[in-house]
Specification:
- The chain is an all-alpha fold and 265 residues long.
- The chain has three domains: 91 residues, Orthogonal Bundle (Helix Hairpins), CATH 1.10.287.1080; 79 residues, MazG-like (Helix Hairpins); 51 residues.
- The protein contains twelve helices and no strands.
- The longest helix has 25 residues.
Length: 265
């Protein structure tokens, strides 16, 4: 780790450092941090674990970069980052580092959120304004919706049974259909957002991670569309001149191939 920190200091050396690294700021490297986090997620979801060490290293470099910027501005350094992390992990796991009773995973997740809430309240000098405070606005929309719902659920604002969530989704479908029929463009966008929010809530009650589910659906679409492209190209035809009926038939064909591949034996 010390070697990595030394490399980072060299990259930011005012006289002999890297011009690109010297131009960066806290704000400018945020997009890179988000990109690296998604590349880690992509490796895991593709099962490409041989690529994971490299992607994790890229993500770690982002932490090192922020720490170097903090060090240069006299705000914090890498040791401060790790010290805060160690304290946080110890405090949030009293069943491991203290004498608190051992909880199951669900109860532990609930306690984790309670610890985070207490930390936010302490940071605000006891003036917690809302249960929803601290949910980053720049989070991916599906993830942020789920997080807000989890926060509200913690204080009892939630559907007691999943049948109610499903009914809410159908209700939002109806309201969207009504807005479409009235050709009210502003209301269509609002109702579509309400429908997405309700679907995220349904996913949460089903134990489905909405971001992961949508990424998987996108990969499936990509895989099947690539099959259509390859098949049409192999026949010597142009995709843009192929009829929708033929493309639909190929789509159904690749679905059947995938189903057969999933069958045991």
């Amino acid at each position: 780790m010390e070697k990595i920190l030394q490399i980072m200091r060299r990259l930011r050396d005012p006289e002999n450092g890297c011009p690109w690294d010297l131009e960066q700021s806290f704000a400018s490297i945020v997009p890179h941090t988000i990109e690296e986090a998604y590349e880690v997620a992509d490796c895991v979801e593709r099962g490409a674990l041989d690529e994971l060490p490299g992607e994790l290293g890229d993500l770690l470099f982002q932490v090192v970069f922020y720490s170097q910027l903090g060090r240069e501005q006299g705000l914090f350094d890498f040791e401060d980052v790790t010290a805060v992390l160690a304290k946080k992990l110890t405090q949030r796991h009293p069943h491991v580092f203290a004498d608190a009773p051992v909880l199951d995973a669900n109860a532990q997740a609930q306690r984790w959120e309670e610890y985070k809430a207490a930390e936010r309240e302490q940071a605000n000098d006891g003036a917690q304004l809302s249960e929803l405070d601290g949910v980053p606005r720049d989070m991916p929309a599906l993830t942020r919706a789920k997080k807000l719902q989890q926060r509200a659920s913690r204080v009892g604002f939630d559907w007691p049974r999943i049948v109610g969530v499903r009914a809410k989704v159908l209700e939002e479908f109806g309201e969207l259909d009504a807005a479409i029929e009235e050709e009210a463009s502003a209301e269509i966008e609002e109702e579509f957002g309400d429908l997405l929010f309700a679907c995220v809530n349904w996913a949460r009650h089903l134990g489905v991670e909405p971001e992961s589910a949508l990424r998987a659906a996108s990969r499936k679409f990509e895989r099947r569309f690539n099959y259509i492209e390859r098949t049409i190209s192999a026949s010597g035809d142009s995709l843009s001149e192929t009829s929708l009926e033929r493309m639909d038939a190929l789509w159904d064909a690749v679905k059947q191939i995938e189903k057969s591949d999933r069958k045991p034996g």
